[in-house]
Amino acid sequence: MADKIAPTPFAVHASAVVLGESGVMIRGASGGGKSSLALALVEAWDRRGDFACLVGDDRVHVRIVNGRALLSPHKTLSGLAEWRGIGLIEQDFEARAVLALIVDLESREQQADCPRMPETEQMRIDFHGLQEVARLRLPARETERSVAAIMAFLHIVAPK
Known about the structure:
The structure is a single chain. With 160 residues, this protein is of the alpha+beta class. The chain has a single domain, classed as Rossmann fold (3-Layer(aba) Sandwich). Helix content is 21%, strand content 41%. The strands form two sheets. Strands 1-2-8-5-4 form a five-stranded mixed beta barrel. It has a two-stranded antiparallel sheet with strand order 6-7. Helix 1 packs across helix 3. The protein is globular, with a radius of gyration of 15 Å.
């Protein structure tokens, strides 16, 4: 892909974290567990002794630069994460991460057509002009299962 720069960042209803060098954007419906998953991923990755940090919660800015998507927090939500039932809590955050994986949290109905053993091409998606970005479709509100799947993907599947 030729070097293209989006003139301005665009907002995505998502949470994002950086795990090691991998930016992970978590999309899904309101109440689907995006914030919980983001915070659980940071905690789990950190327990392994690897660098992990929140980038943004609920709304993330994306800018396409030189064939990569750069993630950054929404200005008004930088350093804040929603803890359902508690409210907004201050969190350490990274100002930028390079997108490596999109996680789509899906309802039971959406998951009905998700293959148990997806082919490689079913784990890729085009995203705002970027082709074949890694993607996992995971069930909404199943944080522990999703953390395990994302960690396995980033440690085992993605490097190959």
